[in-house]
From TrEMBL:
It comes from Ruminococcus champanellensis (strain DSM 18848 / JCM 17042 / KCTC 15320 / 18P13). Keywords: Hydrolase, Metal-binding, Zinc. InterPro entries: APOBEC/CMP_deaminase_Zn-bd, CMP_dCMP_dom, Cytidine_deaminase-like, dCMP_deaminase, dCMP_deaminase-rel, Deoxycytidylate_deaminase_dom. Signal peptide: none annotated. The active site is at E81 (proton donor). This is Deoxycytidylate deaminase.
């Protein structure tokens, strides 16, 4: 049996982390890695102490027909990337890599056509993270260089996220 390459190894872990997600639209898992050490993990869920969407069995954004990537102020959840960043020291995140995996919560199928939302992009930039790697298929991924977001300021207004 062939040994799994490192990028897909970390994406496999991010995909395992997303199993803890409580969003009824999309399940995301994120891990932050620096020098081959996992710094932190994060998944989608309501702030500590608040009920999760899957416990309430409804999504306000779904009820209102809000498309993916819009009207986050209506969402109960904290995004996976945000939770991973909150759980790490900034000094540990400088020049780190964030690995991101997503499943459709209704079908549990991998959704590789995602990237961090505009809010998460801002946090990733400020955290000092160097690149984001998004799982597209079991073995394929895309690498996003965070400095490109800084240079292309308009990319912080769009989203294909939650």
């Amino acid at each position: 049996m062939l040994r799994r390459d490192k990028i897909n190894y970390y994406l496999d872990i991010a995909e395992t982390v997303l199993e803890r997600s409580t969003c009824i639209r999309r399940k995301f898992g994120a891990i932050i890695v620096k020098h081959d050490e996992i710094i932190s993990t994060g998944y989608v869920g309501a702030p500590r102490g608040r009920k999760n969407c899957n416990d309430l069995n409804y999504c306000t954004r779904d009820k209102l027909g809000v498309p993916k990537g819009q009207r986050y102020e209506l969402c109960r959840s904290v995004h996976a990337e945000q939770n991973a960043i909150l759980s790490a020291a900034r000094a540990d995140m400088i020049d780190a890599t964030l690995y991101l995996a997503c499943h459709d919560a209704r079908t549990d199928q991998l959704d590789g056509e995602v990237e961090p939302c505009s809010m998460c992009k801002r946090l990733i930039i400020n955290a000092g993270i160097k690149q984001v790697i998004v799982r597209q298929t079991r073995d394929a991924y895309k690498i996003i260089t965070v400095s490109d977001w800084v240079e292309q300021d308009e990319s912080l207004t769009g989203s294909s996220g939650y």
